[in-house]
Amino acid sequence: MSVPGKADQNTIRRHNASLVLNELRLYAPLSRADLAKRIGLNRSTVSSIVAQLLEEKLIVETELRTDKIGRPGLLLELNPQGGGMIGVEMGVDFIHVILMNFVAHIDWRRRILIGDGEPQETYTHIAEEMIRQALQQAEQMPLPIKGIGLALPGMVDAARGELRYAPNLRWHDVPFGSRWSQRFGLPVIVENNANAGAVGEYYFGAARNVAHFLYLGGGTGIGGGMIMDGRIFRGRGGFAGEIGHMTIEAEGELCSCGRRGCWETLAGPRAVVAKYRSRMEPSVGGGVRLDDDEIGFAQLVEAAGLGDLAALAVLQDAARYLGIGIANLVNILNPELVVLGGVLGQASDLLGPIIKETVKQNSLFPMRAALSIVPSLNGADDCVMGAAALALDSILRQPV
Ligand SMILES: [Zn+2]
Predict the structure, then answer these.
(1) What is the pLDDT, as a whole number, of residue 219?
(2) How far does the centroid of ligand 1 lie from the alpha carbon of residue 347, in Å?
(3) How many angstroms separate the alpha carbon of residue 239 from the centre of ligand 1?
């Protein structure tokens, strides 16, 4: 048996520190003995890691507890002020920035609407100003900021921290990672918004610590974040998860990607709203009627609830198509959980039963046996919390 070298020892120590922080994140308060037992390490190794984490103020000692054989020990938990994260979500027409402490409490937030068609430089400057405000806020608290996470509506090269292409914004090749890490002197993690949403649900939401799950982000189209073995599944170029563009109807409607019959032309929020508009005449159903220019997906759901039969019909159609697409993905990925995020999650009372029934009909028995389909827990904060979670994830993976 070979003796591990210094580099290996550091890697092992970092890995163990990461395990300790994760156990405390999920199950605190815990004693050193609890930690040793849960992780399967000996007491002295755990004590030495705990000492280092205490020194770095990432964890704190809380109350005294006596164990079964009468030995007193201090319980440990994460230090809320141990480290802060800034989460940034850039949407098609808004920027949302939050400041989050080490136990996932949002201490400050700001959301700004951006006019359609503003150039990328304007967006970026506004986002940078908002980050500066978040940093000022953190300094006053004080909360030592450990990193910035950025969620973007497009294809992202996460390894390089670059946005490659955002179709709805028409942006190409923007190196946010290097630009902001230089500007703010902090690590910057850049991700596609659905991947960020998935990471957020993994850390703080409906998929807490679930190793295999699928997150559906519904904004304008349908994005997918696939967590496999507790990690984002990326594929070769990092672009995996463009589930909104799987072909469901070969001769279907034209999609924003230039192809036909993509899933999001049948079940994506923007397409569903467009379908409702085209059904408005001649008059169908009763109840409330929406003015054309104020219809969004959320309004459509509300109208259906108030008795607008046309709204109900298009949403029921959409739910069936959502179910078909989810069944395909379930048959391929065998997840234990599907999380409906964004506006899809907010409409899950209405859509959920039809989605579940359709998935049941279209997935293979062993796949659906232990499958749950649930709305996201973070609601409209899915992506921005996910962005902060990206920074948290990088701290937890390399804590010492
Ligand atoms: Zn498409």
Answers:
(1) 80
(2) 23
(3) 14
Q: Report the length, in residues, of the chain.
A: 400
Q: Which amino acid, residue 230?
A: G
**CA 287 – ligand 1 centroid, Å:** 34
Distances from the Cα of 172 to the Cαs of 7, 120, 159, 167, 233, in angstroms? 39, 10, 17, 9, 23
CA 325–ligand 1 middle distance (angstroms): 13
pLDDT band at 50 (very low <50, low <70, confident <90, very high): very high
Where do you find CATH 1.10.10.10 in the chain?
Answer: 6-78
Distance 264 CA to ligand 1 centre (A): 7
- Look up the CATH number of domain 6-78: 1.10.10.10
CATH architecture of structural domain 84-204+383-397: 2-Layer Sandwich (3.30)
Distance between Cα 257 and ligand 1 center (Å): 4
Is 235 a residue whose pLDDT tops 60? yes
Tell me: the pLDDT tens digits for 123-180?
999 999 999 999 999 999 999 999 999 999 999 999 999 999 987 788 999 999 999 9
Q: In the CATH hierarchy, which fold is given to the domain comprising 213-376?
A: Nucleotidyltransferase; domain 5 (3.30.420)
Which pLDDT value is given to residue 4? 60
Cα 253 to ligand 1 centroid, rounded to whole Å = 10
| Burial classification of residue 172, based on how many CB atoms lie within 10 Å of its CB (0-12 exposed, 13-18 middle, 19 or more buried) | exposed
Give me ligand 1 centre to Cα 305, in Å. Answer: 30
Considering only CA atoms, give the Rg of the chain.
23
Does residue 394 carry a pLDDT above 50?
yes
Residue 247 CA to ligand 1 center (angstroms) comes to 8
Distance 379 CA to ligand 1 centre (A): 25
CATH 3.30.420.40 segments of the chain: 84-204+383-397, 213-376
Distance 245 CA to ligand 1 centre (A): 4
pLDDT digits (tens, 9 = 90+) for 91-129: 988 999 999 999 999 999 999 999 877 899 999 999 999
Q: How far is the CA of 255 from the centre of ligand 1 (A)?
A: 5
Element (H, E) at 362: helix 348-362
Q: How far apart are CA 87 and CA 280, in angstroms?
A: 40
